[in-house]
Design brief:
30% of the residues lie in helices and 21% in strands. It contains 3 helices and 5 strands. The strands form 2 sheets. Strands 2-1-3 form a 3-stranded antiparallel sheet. Strands 4-5 form a two-stranded antiparallel ribbon. A hairpin with a 6-residue loop joins strand 4 and strand 5. The protein starts with a helix and ends in a 5-residue tail after the last strand.
């Protein structure tokens, strides 16, 4: 399975969507969610998990499932526990 273009762009640093500059989040294989900063810091683990899944056919917690736009409210990154918010600093 190839990485989607959305995930590739996200891991290259495109962590905001246009228009609106809403934050993008990375949804992981275990259902967790990573903010852009943590995804970029752990890019090696994410790419390694993706490559391993092609060989062994199973996903671990670092496997990237999808990129999603976070439209409103606030949630926490499962890695750093920082708020991911669509409204700037809260």
């Amino acid at each position: 399975m190839k990485l989607s273009n959305n995930i590739k762009s996200f891991l290259k640093g495109e962590t905001l969507c246009f228009p609106g500059m809403y934050p993008l989040t990375l949804i992981m294989g275990d259902g967790g969610l990573l903010c852009g900063k943590c995804a970029l810091e752990n890019k090696r683990l994410i790419l390694q998990a993706h490559a391993t899944s092609k060989i062994y056919g199973k996903h671990d917690r670092w496997f990237p499932k999808n990129v999603d736009v976070f439209w409103e409210g606030d949630i926490r990154c499962d890695y750093c526990s920082e708020n991911v918010t669509a409204y700037g600093e809260i």
